[in-house]
Amino acid sequence: MGRLQRTLSTVSEADDTDNGRVAVVGGSIEYPNQPALVGEAALRTGTDHVRTLVAEPIYDIVAGYSPNLLVSPYDGERFDSTAVDDTVATCEWADALVIGPGLVDADTAAIRDVIDRIDVPVVADALAIEPALDSDLSNVVLTPSDAEDDPIHDGHESLEQFTEETGAVLTLTGDVDEIVVDGERLENDTGTSALTVAGTGDTLAGITASLLGQGMDRRTAAELGAWILGKSGELATAEFGPGLVATDVIDRIPSTIR
């Protein structure tokens, strides 16, 4: 049995332990459902509690998505400095943070302020990736698609060099998902072409944050997170073919872990 499979067995056997809390900052009027997808993925991966922090105009949408999610609003239509203190306070409760999915028009300085002020591990996804590059990345997993990694290449000869210089961990999604850590590039061996469907990036962010919140180190969480996403996608594809949607993948996470 390989290292990831042994780790997966540990996750599935940890039913009587505290499985962590995840905070999610994301969403916007244009993309209101992204934080809910992240939260559902974290819960399906075993997290005990998820609290999403969203702009007041989309609070009702996210709160009505699932009775399993805790939801808190912040004032205004965009994430800015007025929401930072609420986020930092929530991260004193949480064991991991996801920031960025659907977070349109956010104040980049506010995103950096949050990352630099909190102690829990962070998954910086989507629209938080570029702002996060000016923060301390020694406690961060970045989850860019292969269409979102240009800002990371700027000023660095390679993604491997970037991880060596910043301490960041990268999960790069594309035709083949790759994990880049400590100057090393690893390929994930699960997945299907159907995982290009919208919402699977949010699913990956939620899975990874759940594993971080359960106490895994960033490298293991990144490797196992990509593996779980890919294997859950395989199970969903076997049932639905190319017509699967992100929630089909999320619903199969427990089967993958079992």
Offer a few descriptive terms.
258 residues, alpha/beta, UDP-N-acetylmuramoyl-L-alanine:D-glutamate ligase, 9-stranded mixed beta sheet, 12 helices, 43% helix, globular, kinase activity, ATP binding, ATP-binding, lyase, NAD
CA-to-CA gap between the ends?
15 Å
Low-confidence stretches: none
Number of helices: 12
CATH class (first level) name: Alpha Beta
Q: Shape, please?
A: globular
Looking at the overall shape, the CATH architecture is 3-Layer(aba) Sandwich
Kindly state the percentage of residues in helix. 40-55%
Q: Structural class of the secondary structure composition?
A: alpha/beta
Q: Strand sequence of the main sheet, in spatial order? A: 3-2-1-4-5-6-7-8-9
The proportion of residues in beta strands is: 15-25%
Spell the H/E element sequence.
Answer: HEHEHEHEHEHEHHEEEHHHH
GO molecular function, one term: ATP binding
Protein name: ADP-dependent (S)-NAD(P)H-hydrate dehydratase
Subunit structure: Homotetramer.
Catalytic activity: (6S)-NADPHX + ADP = AMP + phosphate + NADPH + H(+); (6S)-NADHX + ADP = AMP + phosphate + NADH + H(+)
What this model shows, in words?
- It is built from twelve helices and nine strands.
- The protein is of the alpha/beta class and 258 residues long.
- It has one domain: Ribokinase (UDP-N-acetylmuramoyl-L-alanine:D-glutamate ligase).
- It has a nine-stranded mixed sheet, sandwiched between helices.
- Helix 2 crosses helix 9 and helix 9 packs across helix 10.
